[in-house]
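To: structure subgroup
Subject: Chain for Friday's discussion

All,

I'm putting the inputs and outputs inline so they're searchable in the archive.
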Amino acid sequence: MSTLKLIGAHANDIERKERRLKALRHQILAVHDQVMNKSIELKKEKHDHTHASLSKTRNMAHSIEKTNDMMNRPCDQQRMTRTYGKMDADLWTRDEVRLWFNQYAPDKDEDYKFIPSKTGYTLLAENR
């Protein structure tokens, strides 16, 4: 009889340990889910922070550039203006470059009539 009691005690002990193991596995999975959810939340927070920081930097750079632009040349904001480069300066100062361009320029169109008042860039004298 004593062997049956020992076998029964071992069976109860094994059953209790299996229940404890199952509870601990369940606890481990619950903690794992919490860690994964927190990880996803932190990644999203980091992404949002990075995006906001980059956006703020881009907007600041744009506003600084726009402010300087408005202070330095506000009249140019209303119309398109051409920026002149080294080639344009050479055309004005070096005759041989200007002659080369004029040599290959197409003939003037005879139908084209240039009327300065229609361009909007001339000032009309009121009463002379």
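Points worth raising on Friday:
The mean pLDDT is 76.
Helices lie at 2-72, 86-93, 95-103, 116-119.

D.
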